[in-house]
Structure formats: structure tokens, C-alpha cells
């Protein structure tokens, strides 16, 4: 069944030829976008929905979350807000809670958070393992994630479990753990940071994952400058995420590569780190994505709109740069071209704003501006106006 969405005041397509359109219309057929153009030229369809001048953009592509977890870390957050520094060690608290949870509890928690994200316009979401840290719990996390998320990443190398020997744990990750999860995931990631995995250990994990055909991602340069970015670029990772502390050499390496710099502003704020140097990256020519990093420790938000507003208001990204980074940029970080765009053949993932333009995402920060969401051609939300 074809659905015509018309009366679009501003349409962000992210397509180089289509650009940004005014007074536009989109036709959805099944799960795909079938037509995009001026409202006056729109073809007939089975159903017609007038969005009355609202802005439409691709659904958010959140390319970095950690949502297979149980438990709560409010106390750690409160301590941080009282001055305690964030460290990788907090991950172990969530590992204990996750191992103790049933499959049903983990799946329900994941679905609750993904639903929360979808109501705010997220239509494509990556999530990671990394709170299991043994073969059985990493494999079960991957299975649960694969049932719900668009993209799944293996992050057995998130933390050396307390009490374990680091080298033996890396052997396990590169051997039995990868064997168990590889059929369930598309990506492998490593937390290359002081307190987590050093350069040699990270390199071993990434190479072992690559040998099994997995795509690579890296958590790097979150808490200080380090080898994460260099390693990611050298190994051809699709993305290096965080990038809070970058040397000039890191920026140049990213600009000269296909590796996306995925910035996580909500995490920088929640861990009281400086905000990542988006302007330096963009001015050098690097590809930048924005993601939520939704997780119970360092960034407990699913709001991509909050990330976009922060990127514009505080990281000096333009509105168009930030919106691109949170849609097509996320898609690039996941090496996909079916999401993050509104053009014929793309997945019909649309986000209608309760606003006439995407500028309102930063102009009206903190205001819930999602008016309607379509994912795979299916409308997830209904109605545009709430009555008081
Ligand atoms: O991306 N950096 C490592 N992993 C997460 C933190 C997870 C946690 O603290 O539970 C992150 O910030």
C-alpha cells in the first residue's frame, strides 16, 4: 500500500542531488521510500497524510549504545556529580547485575529502552554486548540484542573482569568468546583505554575479530589521548567512538581515512569530560557521526535530539552538520546506505518534527519535538497535536 505524506514544510533528504526541499512530499510503498519531490508534483497514493507544514527528516541512526544490561548506577552518577572521576571500573557493577538477570529481564529492559528511543525518532539502532564478560553471558547478550537491534556489536573486550588475568582474558576473547558470538553479530569493538585494554591487547582482539569476518569499531580516546584512534585507522575500523581527546596526528589520520569519528556528547557531559573537538574534525575534513552512547554508566540517555542540540549549542556544529551526523553520519559509521536518507529506495524511516525546521532542534533544546515516526514504512506514533 502506498502512503503519500504531503504538506512537508522542510524535508531533509541528506541526498546530494535532492538536497533540502520546501513544500515537499514523500511516498512510502511497503518498507521503502518510493518517491520524493515537490508536493505539487506528488503522485496518487492509497492513503494521504498531511503533516501541515512540519519538518521531516530521516529517523535518527544511533550507532552507539550499550543496552543489554540490568541494574542501576544512580549512586555512581551522584558521586560523579559530587566530584568523583568516571573510570572504566564502573562497568563491573553492571556486569554483576547483568549476569544475575534472566534472559526475559534483559530482553524486556532492552525493548523498553529501544521503544523509548523510537518514540523520540530513533529508527535504526546499534547495540553492544559487553556486560557479560564470559563466554556464556556474552553469547546470550548477543542473542538477545540480535532479536531487537538493527546492528549488534561484540564488546567482550569492554573490561578485564575483576580478578581475571588480562592476557588470559584477551586469549578467551580472541578464542572461545569470538567463536560463540561471531555468528550472531556484525561488528567487534574494543575499549582501548587506560583501565581497560592497552594497544597490544586491543590490536589482538581486533585482528582476531577481523579474521572471523567481523567489521571493526573502537572505543578510543575517551578519558585521555591514546592509541585508540591510530589503531582504528590502521586496521580500517568503520568507526572510532568517543574521540574526546585528540592529538593533531589523530585528527589528520581520521581526515585521511574512511574511519568515522563518532562523537558522544551526552557521555562527555555525564562524565564531566570536555566535549569532543567536533569543529577541529570537521574543519580537517573528517567524517563525524553523533550517537547517544545510551548505557547505565557513562551516558544514560536515548535522546539523539539532546545530542544534536548539544553539538550545535556547545560543540559549534551547524544545525545541518549535526542533523547529518545523527542520521547519515550514523549510517556511515555502520557502513549502511539504506538508512539515514530520505530518497527512493531508502528504508522508509521518517521523523516528523513538531516544528517547521530542523533548526528548532537546537533553538528549542529540551522540548520533545517528535510529532510522528515511521520505521520500515510502519507508523510508530500517531497524532501530531497534544491537547491541554
Ligand atoms: O562507551 N567506554 C566504555 N564503555 C561505555 C561505558 C559503559 C559503562 O560505564 O557502563 C562508554 O562510555
Question: How would you describe what is shown here?
Answer:
The chain is an alpha/beta fold and 388 residues long. The chain has two domains: 2-58 and 341-380, Urease, subunit C, domain 1; 60-334, Metal-dependent hydrolases (TIM Barrel, Alpha-Beta Barrel). It has 14 helices and 16 strands. The chain has helices at 74-81, 91-100, 103-119, 135-148, 166-181, 199-211, 228-234, 248-255, 265-270, 278-284, 304-313, 319-325, 328-333, 360-363; strands spanning 2-12, 20-29, 32-38, 47-50, 55-58, 60-62, 122-128, 151-157, 187-192, 215-220, 239-242, 260-263, 288-290, 350-353, 370-375, 378-379. Strands 1, 2, 3, 4, 5, 14, 15 and 16 form an eight-stranded mixed sheet that branches. Helix 6 links the parallel strand 9 (187-192) and strand 10 (215-220). Helix 3 packs parallel to helix 4 (135-148), helix 4 (135-148) packs across helix 5 (166-181) and helix 8 (248-255) packs across helix 10. The model has no long low-confidence stretch (mean pLDDT 97). Residues 66, 90-91, 94, 191, 219, 222, 267, 293, 295-299 line the site of N-(iminomethyl)-L-glutamic acid.
Amino acid at each position: 500500500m502506498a502512503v503519500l505524506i504531503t504538506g512537508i514544510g522542510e524535508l531533509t533528504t541528506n541526498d546530494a542531488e535532492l538536497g533540502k526541499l520546501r513544500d515537499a512530499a514523500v511516498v512510502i510503498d511497503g518498507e521503502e521510500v518510493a518517491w520524493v519531490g515537490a508536493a505539487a508534483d506528488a503522485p496518487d497514493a492509497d492513503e494521504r497524510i498531511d503533516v501541515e507544514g512540519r519538518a521531516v527528516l530521516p529517523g535518527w541512526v544511533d550507532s552507539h549504545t550499550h543496552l543489554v544490561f540490568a541494574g542501576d548506577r544512580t549512586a555512581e552518577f551522584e558521586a560523579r556529580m559530587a566530584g568523583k572521576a568516571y573510570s572504566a571500573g564502573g562497568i563491573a557493577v553492571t556486569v554483576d547485575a547483568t549476569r544475575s538477570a534472566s534472559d526475559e529481564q534483559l530482553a524486556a529492559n532492552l525493548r523498553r529502552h529501544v521503544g523509548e528511543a523510537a518514540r523520540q525518532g530513533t529508527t535504526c539502532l546499534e547495540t553492544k554486548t559487553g556486560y557479560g564478560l564470559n563466554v556464556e553471558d556474552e553469547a546470550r547478550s548477543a542473542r538477545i540484542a540480535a532479536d531487537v537491534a538493527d546492528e549488534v556489536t561484540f564488546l567482550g573486550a569492554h573490561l578485564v573482569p575483576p580478578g581475571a588475568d588480562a592476557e588470559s582474558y584477551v586469549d578467551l576473547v580472541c578464542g572461545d568468546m569470538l567463536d560463540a558470538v561471531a555468528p550472531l553479530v556484525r561488528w567487534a569493538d574494543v575499549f582501548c583505554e587506560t583501565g581497560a585494554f592497552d594497544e597490544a591487547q586491543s590490536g589482538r582482539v581486533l585482528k582476531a575479530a577481523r579474521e572471523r569476518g567481523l567489521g571493526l569499531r573502537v572505543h578510543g580516546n575517551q578519558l585521555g589521548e591514546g592509541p585508540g584512534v591510530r589503531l582504528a585507522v590502521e586496521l580500517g575500523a568503520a568507526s572510532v567512538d568517543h574521540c574526546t581527546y585528540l592529538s593533531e596526528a589523530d585528527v589528520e589520520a581520521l581526515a585521511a581515512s574512511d574511519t568515522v569519528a563518532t562523537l558522544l556528547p551526552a557521555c562527555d557531559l555525564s562524565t564531566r569530560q570536555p566535549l569532543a573537538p567536533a569543529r577541529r574534525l570537521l574543519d580537517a575534513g573528517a567524517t563525524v557521526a553523533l550517537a547517544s552512547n545510551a548505557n547505565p554508566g557513562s551516558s544514560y540517555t536515548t535522546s539523539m535530539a539532546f545530542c544534536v542540540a548539544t553539538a550545535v549549542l556547545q560543540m559549534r556544529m551547524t544545525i545541518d552538520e549535526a542533523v547529518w551526523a545523527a542520521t547519515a553520519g550514523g549510517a556511515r559509521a555502520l557502513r549502511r546506505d539504506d538508512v539515514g536518507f530520505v530518497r527512493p529506495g531508502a528504508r522508509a524511516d521518517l521523523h516528523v518534527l513538531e516544528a517547521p525546521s530542523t533548526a528548532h532542534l537546537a533553538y528549542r533544546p529540551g522540548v520533545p519535538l517528535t510529532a510522528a515516526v515511521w520505521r520500515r514504512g510502519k507508523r510508530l506514533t500517531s497524532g501530531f497535536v497534544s491537547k491541554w
